[in-house]
Amino acid sequence: MNNERTALLDNPSKTLIWSQLPKWMQDNMFITSGYRLPSYSYRRCIQSLFYLHNESVNIWSHLLGLVLFIVLSLHFFLYPHAFADSLTTFDYVYFCSFMAGAILCLGFSSGYHCFCNHSELVAAQWNRCDYTGIVTLIVGSFYPVLYYGFHCHPTPQVVYLAVITTLGVLTAAVVLLRHFRTPAYRWMRTGLFLALGLFGIVPTLHGICLYGIGTSLDTISLGYLVVMAISYVSGALIYACRIPERWYPGKFDIWFSSHQIFHMLVLVAVISHYLGVMQAMTYWHTNGSKSACIQFIS
């Protein structure tokens, strides 16, 4: 440990190859170089934002995404839409639940990738935050869709909200177990996150049965939901399969590794979902909720 700290002081931007890493930093053997030294310092971790290493893209992609969603949240409240007067407490609660989930997920993700070389203890703590953020984003993404998708049908709305919340709590309880956070359980973690997200197929099909595909493009922003789902699923599979670095070890250490592609697809998914939520909100508040409900129920 003393030798590592001395090396860091001598050359803080020095990077390591896989074989030089302590075991707690070894995760993806196909990324063979570009690793930061263990820093044992939050300040030095933050300094690593300003030189190139194999976590640079992972950090900056979600850090910039975090800034974007903070700005979008502020814009929503500071520059009200034309229908702002018709928004209810539920509109604000479900919108904020999604935005909070996005902000927490992107913030915890960028934080984890920035501080994962601090020390074994700090890396584990931020890893738990990272997984918590993922679950929070998935569950928070459901809330506005279920609210608008079943705006005229409160009973299934409440049932679906209760089910996804319960599933989210159970998923978090499992993935936060210590042994589930190790590389050996990568596929199981991915499977649990995918299963939680793919539960959305059930209420989506239910919504299509209620409104039809054409109307669902507005009521639940079906088009944006499809883009979001494709982005999340493909990103998760690329991450779990470690493609493309599995095919060409050492060639994607700094750019275009599976985790970086995953991060970019998460951004596509979250932005798509934001646009979808805003479209659904606009639909219900420009057409009049009560008159629209009479149309769909009658």
UniProtKB/TrEMBL annotation:
Gene Ontology terms describing biological process: intracellular zinc ion homeostasis
Checking InterPro entries in the record gives: AdipoR/HlyIII-related
- Report the membrane topology from the UniProt record: Multi-pass membrane protein
Q: Where in the cell is it found?
A: Membrane
Q: Which residues cross the membrane?
A: 59-80, 92-116, 128-146, 158-180, 192-214, 220-240, 261-281
Which keywords belong to this entry? Membrane, Metal-binding, Transmembrane, Transmembrane helix, Zinc
Query: Care to name a GO molecular-function term for this sequence?
Result: metal ion binding
What does the entry list as the binding residues for Zn(2+)? H113, H259, H263
UniProt GO cellular component terms: membrane
The family this protein is said to belong to: Belongs to the ADIPOR family.
Official protein name in the record: Uncharacterized protein
Q: Which organism is it from?
A: Lichtheimia ramosa
